[in-house]
Design a protein that fits this description.
- The complex is a heterodimer of chains A (422) and B (160).
- Chain A has 422 residues and is mainly alpha-helical.
- Chain A has one domain (77-421): Cytochrome-c3 Hydrogenase, chain B (Orthogonal Bundle), CATH 1.10.645.
- Chain A has 18 helices and 8 strands.
- The longest helix of chain A is centred in the first third of the chain and has 29 residues, at 122-150.
- The radius of gyration of chain A is 23 Å and the shape is globular.
- The relative contact order of chain A is 0.17.
- With 160 residues, chain B is mainly alpha-helical.
- Chain B has helices at residues 3-7, 12-27, 38-47, 82-91, 103-107, 137-152; strands spanning 70-74, 97-101, 128-130.
- Chain B has a 3-stranded parallel sheet with strand order 1-2-3.
- In chain B, helix 4 links the parallel strand 1 (70-74) and strand 2 (97-101).
- Classes of the chains: A mainly alpha (422), B mainly alpha (160).
Chain lengths: 422, 160
């Protein structure tokens, strides 16, 4: 078998036509003889949720095999982080899973805290929970809108984005940025919540459950939606576990695994909420789970708001070796000026150890592995991201279904290519 | 070259045709349904309820480049994706315009590394650059209106 040399220049790439022999073993023998059709889907396709490329082998309209091709959004974030001090690397993590930047911040910040053995005050933990659950709602709203558009229901996107704008407005209040907030930082959060944040959040919590009912009225009992979603893209629980699926894609198959319950972080063990589970492992069950997660997030947020009003105190660790002093202290304390200067120029040293820490993002388990050097920069940082793993399971989910079901399956596992390729 | 060389000096008529054509072009500039990364989500926000791009005749995204007038490069452009974007641009029919949305598309942004093309203008000509990481929908609207101004000032004599 000839080994393909990757084409270098643009002209070479465009004139490169490939060779069927290179696909031997990846597609069935029938594709080599021309009995089945090979169809390219992506990387420019409205329903691949980004720059995912799929090579589909079709028998008529039925999918025989599916080869995902990722890397069209490979950004080199993990390598770039190696050249930055721990705090300065944080804004890069925002841009991996760009539908829920707060979860990435949390995964990275929690990993750094674990490496440094750094404490997080209670108020900081509560603000984090508020941010993470709002991010879960914002991410699920994009999923809902785009998933519905893929299946032909155009209006849901407009409703979903109406509520998402309100969440982004709250993120802007907190951090000054709508999407890439870099708000959750090692040791706590960047700053305390502003005065008008809590009233806005409370009003949102009053309005949002009714809006979720509206989405359900549009979709849940809609016969077209049920026809397109039920019994499509089924993945059995044991197969889902074997492929390492996490998040709603795993819980849709009925496996009760949620890191917020299984390995609680940021005080999640003290909140009262349920983990919705599916039965059939199909597109419809994964849809129902995310809709129920809206309601569970509302439960958590209501409890968090109550605590936020009660608990006062610092929102970020007081350990000045790792966390900068308040701005107001700078004019009064020489100590504070020294700490401030040291932290924003050199950063801080982290021990020569390797740690792994995972949290539950809207998509599933997002884990961060850091190997320190003893200096102010890491030797290696790696992110275990749910989208990459879910894409690897697409061939199993798609096999035997129709081409038109492919967009439903891609939508239901909720992939983000920035998260996959990094 | 162009229409005016064939028709001679048409004086005030030329100006009117120019204005009419440019008005029509700015009134229904169909963007290519194309997103790369984070900026594409803000682009979707601009399309959705609160910002509503259809006010500018742009609610119709075409998934095929053959029917699109405007390429909004929204997000970081990787070396693996660059030939695809170039091919999409080549497939678009004239007249066509390009907006480079966000820092990554304009200059590489925070990613000065092996994977990212340092600005989409390395492979295709860009009409309007929008700063921001990601730009707010208002910034995108401002960029689109800036492009409209540019199109309105185009002259028939300059058409090849």
């Amino acid at each position: 078998m000839a080994v393909a040399t990757p084409p270098q220049s643009i002209e070479e790439q465009r004139s490169w036509e490939g060779n069927l022999d290179q696909l031997r073993g990846l597609v069935s023998e029938r594709a080599i003889t021309g009995e089945t059709m090979l169809l390219n889907m992506g990387p420019h396709h409205p329903s691949t949720h980004g720059v995912l490329r799929l090579l589909l082998e079709l028998d008529g309209e039925q999918i025989v095999s599916c080869l995902p091709d990722v890397g069209f959004l490979h950004t080199g974030i993990e390598k770039s982080v190696e050249d930055k001090s721990y705090e300065k690397a944080l804004p890069l993590t925002d841009r991996m899973d760009y539908l829920s930047p707060m979860s990435n911040n949390m995964a990275y910040a929690a990993a750094v805290e674990k490496l440094l053995d750094l404490d997080v005050p209670e108020r900081g933990q509560i603000i984090r929970v508020v941010c993470l659950e709002l991010a879960r709602c914002a991410s699920h709203l994009v999923w809902l809108g785009t998933h519905a558009i893929d299946m032909g229901a155009m209006s849901v996107l407009l409703y979903a984005f109406r509520e998402r704008e309100r969440i982004l407005g709250m993120f802007e209040m907190l951090s000054g940025q709508r999407m890439m907030s870099s708000y959750i930082r090692p040791g706590g959060v960047w700053r305390d919540v502003p005065d008008d944040f809590l009233p806005t959040l409370k009003q949102f919590l009053i309005d949002f459950p009714g809006k979720v009912d509206d989405y359900e009225a549009l979709l849940t009992q809609n016969p077209i939606w049920k026809d397109r979603a039920q019994g499509v893209g089924v993945i059995e629980p044991d197969v889902a576990l074997a492929y390492g699926l996490t998040g709603p894609a795993l819980r849709g198959s009925g496996v009760n695994w949620d890191l917020r319950k299984a390995q609680p972080y940021s005080g999640y063990e003290t909140y009262d909420f349920n983990v919705p589970l599916g039965e059939h492992g199909d597109v419809y069950d994964r849809y129902l789970i995310r809709i129920q997660e809206f309601r569970e997030s509302m439960k958590i947020l209501n409890q968090a708001v109550e605590r936020l009003e009660r608990v006062t105190g610092p929102y970020r660790s007081e350990n000045r070796k790792y966390c900068p002093p308040l701005r107001s202290e700078l004019g009064q304390s020489m100590e504070a000026v020294i700490h401030h200067f040291k932290l924003w120029t050199y950063g801080y040293d982290a021990p020569d150890e390797e740690i792994y820490n995972a949290i539950e993002s809207p998509r599933g388990e997002i884990g961060c592995y850091i190997h320190g050097t003893g200096g102010n920069k890491p030797r290696r940082v790696h992110f275990k991201t749910p989208s990459f793993i879910h894409i690897s399971a697409l061939p199993v989910m798609a096999k035997g279904y129709l081409l038109a079901d492919m967009v439903a399956i891609i939508g239901s596992v909720d992939i983000v290519l920035g998260d996959c390729d990094r | 070259m162009g229409v005016s060389s064939k028709l001679g000096n048409m004086g005030v008529v030329t100006t009117t045709v120019e204005q009419a054509v440019n008005w029509a072009r700015t009134g229904a500039m169909w963007p290519l349904l194309f997103g790369l990364a984070c900026c594409a989500i803000e682009y979707m926000s601009s399309q959705a309820s609160s910002y509503d791009l259809s006010r500018f005749g742009m609610e119709l995204n075409r998934a095929t480049p053959r029917q699109a007038d405007l390429l909004i490069v929204s997000g970081r452009l990787t070396r693996k994706m660059a030939p695809v974007v170039r091919q999409l641009y080549d497939q678009m029919a004239e007249p066509k315009w390009v907006i480079s949305m966000g820092d990554c598309a304009s200059c590489g942004g925070v990613y000065n590394n092996y994977a990212i093309v340092q600005g989409v203008d390395e492979i295709i000509p860009v009409d309007v650059y929008i700063a921001g990481c990601p730009p707010r929908p208002e910034q995108l609207l401002h960029g689109i209106l800036t492009l409209h101004e540019k199109v309105r000032s185009e002259r028939i004599a300059d058409w090849a």
